[in-house]
Design the sequence.
């Protein structure tokens, strides 16, 4: 398992390639990449807790589906439109588990991992407010 | 040790004007909710930042918890608005 909270960009292809090679029994890799939309932003996080929270989410996913391995990378700091923010890639024997675990990890990241976005809009900087739809997305897995 | 370390993040950090502080845990303050009330009672910037209507979350020793969660001396307690990562 690879969890990284970093300022630097990542390369999805390289990450998936490296993940795929960790076991010969991997038959499916599902991945997701989240991008900055429309406005520049700065992402703040709670160093220490962030990595721990992501590890707990992955552990929870592993209890529900067959997760052979996974990679989660989340960036922080200043980002501009089209920049990559987050990636999740899940390796499993079959696609069903890989798809489901990948979506679950993203939904839980949204409500459980301590990140906060501050957008630099034309009217000035403003903190993004949490969406009820994100809570609902996480709730549906219960 | 009778102190707790308190961390503030994002808009809450900006409202209070600091990211961390150590305080003596007052006797009788044994939960996250009680600590929140205690901080609100300090008045000034704290009063509005910790107002009852302010939507805040908390973590104790880096685990997200409910307001009823117990706290004790030596703990690291963080307050922050609902998260917006991903």
Sequence:
């Amino acid at each position: 398992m690879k969890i990284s909270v970093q300022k630097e960009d990542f390369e999805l292809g390289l990450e998936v390639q490296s993940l795929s090679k960790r076991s010969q029994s991997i038959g499916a890799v599902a991945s997701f990449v989240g991008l900055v939309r429309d406005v520049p932003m700065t992402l703040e996080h709670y160093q220490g807790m962030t990595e721990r929270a992501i590890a707990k989410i992955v552990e929870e996913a592993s209890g529900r589906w067959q997760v052979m391995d996974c990679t989660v990378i989340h960036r922080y700091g200043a980002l501009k439109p089209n920049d990559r923010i987050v990636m999740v890639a899940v390796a499993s024997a079959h696609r069903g588990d890989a798809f489901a675990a990948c979506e679950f990890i993203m939904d839980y990241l949204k409500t459980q991992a301590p990140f906060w976005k501050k957008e630099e809009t034309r009217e000035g900087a403003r903190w993004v407010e949490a969406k009820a739809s994100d809570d609902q997305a996480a709730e549906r897995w219960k | 040790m009778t102190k707790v370390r308190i961390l503030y993040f994002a808009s809450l950090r900006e409202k209070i004007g600091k990211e961390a502080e150590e305080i003596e845990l007052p006797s009788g303050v044994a939960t996250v909710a009680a600590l929140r009330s205690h901080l609100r009672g300090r008045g000034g910037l704290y009063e509005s930042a910790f107002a009852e209507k302010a939507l805040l979350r908390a973590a104790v020793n880096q685990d997200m918890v409910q307001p009823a969660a117990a706290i004790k001396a030596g703990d690291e307690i963080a307050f922050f608005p609902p998260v917006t990562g991903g």
